[in-house]
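User: Could you check the structure of this?
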Amino acid sequence: MDDETMMGLALEQARAAANRNPADVPIGAVVLGLDGELLSEAGNRREADEDPTAHAEILALRAAARVTGRWNLTGCTLAVTLEPCTMCAGAIVLSRLQRVVVGAMDPKAGAAGSLYDLVREPRLNHRVELTTGVRGQECGDLLRAFFRERRRR
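Assistant: Sure, the predicted structure tokens are below.
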């Protein structure tokens, strides 16, 4: 599956998160296995679950680990609509993902190239291949519309 298609699936999860709970920031993530099969998909559920760790990436990583039966996701790829925060970037490194595909960058809290670059930190024991800007305008537009509506209320 190519990056654009993966990000399309992540965008579907972001929209589903917003439809499920309008207070949840519309962020979506998917994990693909070694052979490109879809292992998991998730949308942000922080507000819905009242859980500060219920970010789309964390939920997708947990689900992928359940599907594979192992925490080590070597060879897998994560696609996410917004650049991961420090918590998610740490989980990405610890899960040994091979690759991360990011839609919109987050200059205020991003830890995959913007504010920090934790996923490629040479002092850590694992580094992740990173591709950014995939359908970035579309991902960013979804987030901007969400926050514009939130400010309007």
